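seq:
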Amino acid sequence: MFDFKRGRLLLFAALTFLMLGCFSWAFAAEISLDDLNGQKHSLSHYRGKPVILFFWTTWCPSCRKELVGLGERSAAISEEGIVVLGVDAGEPDYKVKKYLKDLPLNFTILLDKEMELVDKYELIGVPTFVFLDKDGKVVGQAHRFPANYKSLLTK
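struct:
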């Protein structure tokens, strides 16, 4: 016979486990995406350094705001030893190049044309930041750039 009291307790424990971020022990999905110059990048190349992945699109007004803000902060973030990678979700390179022409960005933009990485991370909406620690573990995700990004990456 099913014990409802025990079942509720197990359900509560499972939900608490998920809400506390215990899922953050998952390793990052491996990527092999082209940048705007056609050069391949794989996430494993950046192991040993924390990484911020920023998923965005050209049609998203909030993405532009976050992209500009990240562009302004990226030099300081890089000086801290953190890698910043922008990931355009599902658009052709000519469209992304045209969109970025007037934006002063000094970090690598990757093209996820088939949205494979978006699917691997099960992202819901853009803009989305995904934070990876130096071991390649996902340690956080946000739709806005958090002020506590350093503490996320050094857990």
